[in-house]
Amino acid sequence: MSENAEPPKRLMTRPWRGIREHYAEMAPKSPNLAAMAELVGRIETSHLARLHAWTSMFTLCIAQTPVSYPNCWPHLTIRPLDDGRAEFRLHDTQIDSRQWNRTVPIDGAFDRLCRLADDLCWFPRVGRAIETGPTSDD
């Protein structure tokens, strides 16, 4: 390798199946991790499976494109909490106080993720009417 060449970057994202299996292995230890396995299973079989993900301890990290270390911005994290809720945090800035975040019951995490993906326009809406104003034929 020449002295100016950058070292190879390590791909962080993994297939959804592997992430689901990761949570499923830990599920007997915690109902929250079992719920995360269920969440990932739902993502895996939905339109959201086109997103890219990895884990950091118990936190699910999601991005629109494949991510290589250390360039993982922006991304969304879903972190299971001990009280049966999940914290969503959009890491689009390194200033924590400016990051969008919500806490939802963990069994509502899939629906919240779908709404957030729609709010962020991560997927084009098929069949969405485009308002162009009135048209005339003359």
Structure classification:
alpha+beta
Largest sheet: 5 strands, antiparallel
Strand order of the largest sheet: 1-2-3-4-5
The secondary-structure element order is HHEEEEEH
Poorly predicted segments: 127-138
Using DSSP, what is the number of strands?
5
Radius of gyration computed on alpha carbons: 18 Å
* N- to C-terminal distance: 67 Å
Average pLDDT metric: 85
- The helix tally amounts to 3
Instruction: Report the helical percentage.
Output: 25-40%
Shape summary:
globular
Q: Kindly estimate the percentage of residues that lie in beta strands according to DSSP.
A: 15-25%
Question: What is shown here, in short?
Answer:
With 138 residues, the protein is of the alpha+beta class. The chain has helices at 16-26, 31-44, 109-119; strands at 52-56, 59-63, 75-80, 85-91, 101-105.
